[in-house]
Amino acid sequence: MNHLITDSGSKRRFVLPDSTIVWLNSNSKLEYPTTFSESSREISLEGEAYFEVSHDVNKPFHVHAGDMDIEVLGTHFSVENYPDKKGVEAVLAEGRIKVTGSEIPVPLVLEPGELIRYDKSNKQTVVKKVDAENYISWIQNELTFDNAKLADIVMNLKKWYSIDIECDSSIGQNLSMSFTLHKGEDLDEILKAMTLIIPVRYYWKDNVLNIVSVK
């Protein structure tokens, strides 16, 4: 098996043997065979990736991402499956994908602009309409958050700036924000702006960024 790996804070573009294009986000790993079988194309993902799948009606493309399996013929979509996140999700930009899994007994077919998220803690699956561009903007060196929970923002900032962040779980799930972040923006300026929007403060201790509630 072949392995494609990205370090913290980096992203890379790869082309698989079938000409499928893969953008691999920070701290991610993709596993695939040197030669795909005659009947299917199987890969495994840990982390986050965006796929532009080469069309082949006779060889469905399968992404195995933890508790979620995704089957496509030819389409553009993003998958996120980080071990330290409590969910696995996929967002469809173009085409159609079929999603199954150990806790998704009935296959779900997504249309463009739909997101599917499987929650590992409660084993619930949710499908909803989203702006797919917000979920793949990292390819263009942007991070777009649309009413995102602070916990998800923190997770992305960790990858984006390659830093350790501690955030109170009570505020991580209860506070939300919307903004767009560009690669290279000063982290301190972003944090200052954050404190003007939501009731939090931040401080550094032992090279760890701490975000806490304002009492």
- Rough outline: globular
Q: Which fold does the CATH topology of the largest domain refer to? A: Jelly Rolls
- The second-level CATH architecture of the largest domain is Sandwich
Q: Give the tally of structural domains.
A: 2
Structure summary, number of beta strands: 18
Mean pLDDT: 91
Task: Please give the share of residues in helix.
Answer: 10-25%
Task: State the distance separating the first and last CA atoms.
Answer: 52 Å
Give the helix/strand layout.
Blueprint: E1 2-5, E2 12-15, E3 21-24, E4 29-32, E5 41-52, E6 61-65, E7 68-72, E8 76-81, E9 87-94, E10 97-101, E11 104-110, E12 114-119, E13 124-129, H1 132-136, E14 142-149, H2 150-161, E15 164-167, H3 169-172, E16 176-182, H4 187-197, E17 200-205, E18 208-213
Parallel strand pairs: 5-6, 15-18
Antiparallel strand pairs: 1-4, 2-3, 3-5, 4-5, 5-8, 6-7, 7-10, 8-9, 9-12, 10-11, 12-13, 14-16, 17-18
Domain Protein FecR C-terminal: 143-208
Domain FecR protein: 4-97
Protein name: FecR domain-containing protein
How would you portray this structure in words?
This is FecR domain-containing protein. Residues 4-97 form the FecR protein domain. It comes from Bacteroides faecis. The chain is mainly beta and 215 residues long. It folds into 2 domains: 2-134, Sandwich (Jelly Rolls), CATH 2.60.120.1440; 141-213, 3-Layer(bab) Sandwich (Phage tail protein beta-alpha-beta fold). Helix content is 15%, strand content 50%. The chain is built from 4 helices and 18 strands. The protein has helices at 132-136, 150-161, 169-172, 187-197, and strands spanning 2-5, 12-15, 21-24, 29-32, 41-52, 61-65, 68-72, 76-81, 87-94, 97-101, 104-110, 114-119, 124-129, 142-149, 164-167, 176-182, 200-205, 208-213. The strands form 3 sheets. Strands 1, 2, 3, 4, 5, 6, 7, 8, 9, 10, 11, 12 and 13 form a 13-stranded mixed β-sheet that branches. A hairpin with a 2-residue loop joins strand 10 and strand 11. The model has no long low-confidence stretch (mean pLDDT 91).
